[in-house]
Amino acid sequence: MKRKHWQGWGPGEQAEQHYLVEPRSLAGGGDLRHVSEFLRACGWQDKSKRNGPLVLDSPDRTIRIGYNPYVQPGGWTIHSKATAHQDEWTVSLGRHTPVEIVAGLTDALTRPRSAHAPNVWAPLQEQHWDTTRDAEHFTARSPDGTAWMQFREDQPGHAMWWSGAHDQQGNGWTAMFTASTPMHLVQAFSTALASPEPVMRPRGRVPHSTQIRTTSVSVLPSQLSAWQQARVSAARAATWARTWTTNGPRTTARPHATASHARARR
What's the Cα-to-Cα distance from 58 to each of 18, 199, 239, rounded to whole Å? Predict the structure, then answer.
């Protein structure tokens, strides 16, 4: 990793050893703040109780995201109430799902939908995942065979998306999406899942797996802080821009202000 001097480094700051991990699907859970701080910056309300599970509600209170490590099997749950334009839906992700992959989905919840029709399989095919199809299942599998994405219909009217990753040592996770999950969100997840970009983990937080590749890098705490802050700042800026575009500045005078001005001219 190329070193760059950031403003504000302390004189006694010591570099810490981290690792870039590939494939990202086997990198382990990671820092929950990668997901939670971004959502807070986008206006999501933190409903977590002290020393309890993470709970975040969308600004319109239709979607709740939770992470609970205190139950078995534990992990992430994303649930949306039914709305006038969308059926109820739920996504469950195992506790070892990398936060960068979770964020692919949760970040998309903060953005407007694209006008383009979503295609869950396109990001996987772009990364040369193998696809197979039978009467009930359509499956894409990563080139190394460790990760998969599948649409399955075990019986009429009972369909779902199923994904995950596992290595030969048994490390891994699974994710399930109800069939009513909006397709653009499933595509956002598949894009993050298939990304070839490695993810960073600190020393001691890298899974023991023969199927991952690691590159050792030295990182200063201020570098990590700056990278995290840049992500949060980008979320705040995008949220502010959408609010400004939607609401905009007031361009017409209030009725009472117009009347007052007319009286003043008499």
Answer: 33, 27, 13
Which uninterrupted H or E stretch holds 265?
helix 255-265
Largest pairwise CA distance in the chain: 87
**By the 8 A CB rule, do 150 and 139 touch?**
yes
Q: pLDDT for 149-172, tens place per residue?
A: 999 987 777 889 999 999 999 899
Q: Tokens for 248?
A: 């905009």
8 found inside a domain: no
pTM for the full predicted model: 0.86
* Domain count of the fold of the chain: 1
The contacts found for 226-232 with CB under 8 angstroms, 24 or more apart, are 226/6, 228/33, 228/34, 228/37, 231/34, 231/37, 231/38, 232/37, 232/38, 232/41
Q: For residue 75, is it within any domain?
A: yes
Please report whether residue 249 resides in a domain: no
Three-state DSSP state, 191: helix
Q: What is the pLDDT of residues 146-155, one digit of tens each?
A: 999 999 987 7
Print the domain residue range for 91: 16-242
